[in-house]
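Is this the right way to post structure tokens for a design question? Let me know if I should format differently. Anyway, here goes:
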């Protein structure tokens, strides 16, 4: 498996370079990054809606009813079209959803830590994660623009770090391939 991976070392190098370039561009152009995020959401919602409608037609052939699929599909398509036409409000809505999700998830973490405190050591770490999520969610809910910029920063730095790791792995595999090819030709 390592020999096969070392033959494709360049794929990781390309992935790494693209990740770093994407991350840097996202940091330099946060507005464009957010609009792109809104358009990706729009595309996903439209595709998801079409899939729901098609699935509903398939279900209708078997059971005769597909209105839940139809409603889901139409709402999803409408949401996608609105997101594509109105990326600014879409970004704001996505930030509010993100903030609410973080608060609810953080409270759930905190409650889980409280419930398992007698069975698990260091449950405070789970509670700490919950508290951090609640604080992050509240910041995003109170300051959606800050939340949007933090989201871009997170995406950007994640891409940069993942790109650096992929680049390093690709170059390491390239070195491994060169070393194995030299040792293979030396024995002939």
């Amino acid at each position: 498996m390592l020999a096969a991976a070392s033959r494709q070392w360049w794929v990781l190098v390309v992935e790494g370079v693209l990740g770093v370039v994407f991350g840097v561009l996202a940091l330099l152009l946060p507005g464009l990054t957010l609009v792109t995020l809104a358009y990706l959401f729009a595309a996903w919602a439209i595709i998801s809606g079409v899939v729901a409608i098609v699935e509903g037609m398939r279900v209708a052939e078997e059971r005769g009813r597909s209105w839940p699929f139809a409603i889901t599909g139409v709402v999803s398509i409408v949401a996608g079209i609105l997101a594509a036409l109105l990326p600014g409000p879409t970004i704001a809505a996505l930030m509010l959803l993100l903030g609410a999700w973080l608060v609810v998830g953080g409270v759930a973490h905190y409650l889980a830590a409280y419930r398992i405190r007698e069975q698990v050591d260091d449950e405070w770490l789970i509670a700490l994660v919950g508290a951090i999520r609640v604080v992050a969610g509240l910041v995003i809910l109170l300051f959606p623009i800050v939340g949007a910029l933090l989201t871009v920063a997170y995406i950007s730095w994640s891409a940069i770090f993942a790109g650096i790791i992929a680049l390093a792995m690709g170059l390491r595999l390239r070195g491994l391939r060169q070393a194995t090819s030299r040792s293979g030709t030396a024995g002939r």
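Format looks fine. Someone answered above. Worth noting: Residues 56 and 66 are 5 Å apart (CA to CA). The mean pLDDT is 88.
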